[in-house]
Design goal:
With 142 residues, the chain is mainly α. It has a single domain (18-137), classed as Orthogonal Bundle (Ribonuclease iii, N-terminal Endonuclease Domain, Chain A), CATH 1.10.1520.10. The chain has six helices and no strands. Helix 3 packs across helix 5. The radius of gyration is 15 Å and the shape is globular.
């Protein structure tokens, strides 16, 4: 039986995983990054945390972030995104269009890929850029 090691989650060949698996882990990594960011910026009331987190994790925000990041992605990252975007969707959540959900799945696939690859520096760069895009988009709506 394999031991669980939470300090080193990198994998040798994450590009061999199905896009759904990359998106699955990417969703969790991104959610945790958003929650940590909100707490670090001083938000501590649970209802405020949830409301603010939704602005970052909703499919539309993730899709918008990915579209804004396309020019800074490497060829390898673009390949992961393409696979994530073209994966077969089992369901589309309420409030999200098909293309919006495809792009959000692609975004989560990219996050999962970078995390499992162990490229934390690049993951942080992408998360930072995505956060800037989403924060900017949120301020336009207000």
């Amino acid at each position: 039986m394999n031991k669980i090691n939470f300090t080193d989650q990198s994998m040798e060949n994450p590009h061999l995983l199905p896009p759904q698996a990359l998106a699955y882990i990417g969703d969790a990594v991104y959610e945790l990054a958003v929650r940590r960011y909100l707490i670090a910026k001083g938000t501590v009331k649970v209802n405020q945390l949830h409301t603010q987190a939704v602005e970052y994790v909703r499919a539309g925000a993730q899709a918008e972030a990915l579209l804004a990041l396309e020019d800074v992605l490497t060829d390898e990252e673009k390949s992961v995104v393409r696979r994530g975007r073209n994966t077969k969707l089992l369901h589309i959540p309420k409030g999200a269009g098909v293309m919006e959900y495809r792009y959000s799945t692609a975004f989560e696939s990219l996050i999962g890929f970078l995390y499992l690859k162990g490229d934390i520096q690049r993951l942080n760069e992408i998360l930072q850029l995505a956060g800037e895009v989403i924060s900017g988009a949120g301020s336009k709506k207000a």
